[in-house]
Specification:
Elements lengths: L7 H4 L3 H21 L7 H5 L12 H5 L6 H22 L3 E4 L8 E4 L1
Antiparallel strand pairs: 1-2
Helix pairs in contact: 2-5
Length: about 110
């Protein structure tokens, strides 16, 4: 179980905001699995690269909670928080599993 209390910035989000973000993450996982049923994914695949613009999405809140710390730090932390919440969402699903990765390598996931 992932404890959001270990991440003080995430504690500043309301329960409703966290649920909205988790719902958005679930939808992105569903879209990925539907489009690429046998291809692994990660936080970078779902929310980085060509998907870096989070404006008008529920996960924009992950950037906004640190926007007072400057763009680069807010951007960096938002990606880490997206990874924490992606991991939490994956652990709650029965159709997705985590792929073992070497220590220090970001988590990867795939449809079971």
């Amino acid at each position: 179980m992932i404890n959001l209390s270990d991440t003080p910035d995430l504690q500043s989000l309301s329960d409703i905001q966290v649920l909205q973000i988790e719902d958005y993450i679930n939808k992105r996982i569903d879209e990925w699995i539907k489009t690429y049923p046998n291809k692994e994914f990660s936080v970078k695949v779902l929310f980085g690269n060509d998907n870096w613009n989070w404006n008008k999405t529920d996960i924009q809140q992950l950037h906004d909670i640190n926007s007072n710390k400057g763009y680069d730090e807010a951007f960096d932390k938002a990606g880490k928080y997206a990874g924490i919440l992606l991991n939490k969402v994956v652990k709650s699903r029965s159709d997705v599993k985590q792929i073992p990765t070497p220590r220090g390598v970001p988590y990867k996931y795939i449809k079971k």
